[in-house]
Task: inverse folding
């Protein structure tokens, strides 16, 4: 392939290096580009090493080419079909907040984060209260001695 890559073109490349912020992909013997972590997959990518390894052959889309520096921005997720979003049932607005509509978006985001392995604030609060009670009980024991 020629040394010039056009924006929007899809090419094959080989992963040559992985960093916390993205993966370097060799397009030919002389040119390589960077796939930023946000362009690895359609979903959240916590660790690139779970998605890619050095030596993998990947299909990438050229997002931009900086003519002065020669830097090439690439995307793997742009070469893959976008996953269909499944519609989640929305909870009925019967709480103290009323039916403002904005609250439902927030709750949906919390549910999504919970399925991705994040603790909700409610869970964290329970843990903090438990730790606080244990520390307080420990201090009370020391005072009694």
Result:
């Amino acid at each position: 392939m020629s040394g010039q890559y056009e924006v929007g073109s899809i090419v094959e490349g080989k992963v040559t290096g992985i960093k916390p912020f993205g993966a370097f992909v060799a397009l030919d013997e002389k040119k390589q580009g960077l796939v930023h972590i946000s362009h690895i997959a359609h979903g959240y990518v916590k660790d690139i090493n779970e998605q890619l390894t050095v030596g993998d052959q990947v299909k990438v889309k050229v997002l931009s080419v900086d003519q002065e520096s020669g830097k090439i921005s690439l995307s793997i997720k742009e070469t893959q079909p976008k996953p269909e979003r499944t519609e989640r049932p929305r909870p009925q607005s019967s709480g103290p907040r009323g039916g403002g509509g904005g609250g439902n978006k927030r709750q949906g985001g919390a549910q999504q984060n919970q399925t991705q392995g994040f603790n909700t604030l409610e869970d964290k609060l329970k843990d903090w209260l438990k730790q606080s009670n244990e520390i307080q009980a420990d201090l009370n024991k020391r005072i009694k001695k």
